[in-house]
Amino acid sequence: xxxxxxxxxxxxxxxxxxxxxxxxxxxxxxxxxxxxxxxxxxxxxxxxxxxxxxxxxxxxxxxxxxxxxxxxxxxxxxxxxxxxxxxxxxxxxxxxxxxxxxxxxxxxxxxxxxxxxxxxxxxxxxxxxxxxxxxxxxxxxxxxxxxxxxxxxxxxxxxxxxxxxxxxxxxxxxxxxxxxxxxxxxxxxxxxxxxxxxxxxxxxxxxxxxxxxxxxxxxxxxx
Length: 223
Ligand SMILES: Nc1ncnc2c1ncn2[C@@H]1O[C@H](COP(=O)(O)OP(=O)(O)O)[C@@H](O)[C@H]1O
Ligand SMILES: [Mg+2]
Known about the structure:
The protein has a single domain (33-59, 72-221), classed as Rossmann fold (3-Layer(aba) Sandwich). The mean pLDDT is 94. The chain has helices spanning 47-54, 77-87, 103-108, 118-131, 147-159, 177-192, 204-207, and strands at residues 3-15, 20-32, 36-40, 62-67, 70-71, 88-92, 165-169, 196-201, 212-217, 220-221. It is α/β, with parallel strands linked by helices. Helix 4 packs across helix 5 (147-159). It is globular. Helix content is 32%, strand content 28%. A six-stranded mixed beta sheet has the order 6-7-8-3-9-10, sandwiched between helices. Strands 2-1-4-5 form a four-stranded antiparallel beta sheet, covered by helices on one side. The structure holds adenosine-5'-diphosphate and magnesium ion (MG). Magnesium ion binds next to helix 1. Pfam families: ABC_tran.
């Protein structure tokens, strides 16, 4: 197994002045290229904190995150942003789309921060929108879409820079069961094409589709 992502002895302590919240304590994780891993645990167990750290959106208080064999500790904010944009696609519970912007323009957005020439943007975005089956909604504004459609746009946007992995934090949390299953099928499809998927969820049943489950409790891996 070639590790694509490693967390070594990662702790995160939120300093709230009078109190300190230990959100993660000595977490060790190794994720292989092409794996589909679920990170599960109850609300407050530290899943989102871990996801933000693995995705280089936040830095640990202690420990290291190693991506493709490169230690990210000490990287500047600019370097981290570049690594994120090239290597990681994010999907969140709340979709995080630009509401009054079209499907096409939402998916084009990450390309504007990439090295892809502008002449390629529309073609690449349309290709991803077709994969999630929304080619007939290109010109709709995202606030005109259903929850499931919004999440499919978010997946297309996460994929458009051809990242090596997808990090999804409760991606079905705002969707009904049936729509949630459809979203999960999109992740399975991407995984079968070789993408590494890290799915964060409190839903044990949903986590069953992953090859491997990492269980968090009170900031520690218990399984
Ligand atoms: N930005 C923050 N500031 C202070 N405490 C936080 C912050 N984010 C999360 N926490 C705390 O850290 C713990 C883990 O939270 P979180 O990672 O969001 O868990 P989960 O995603 O599993 O619900 C909780 O006790 C939460 O209140
Ligand atoms: Mg969370």
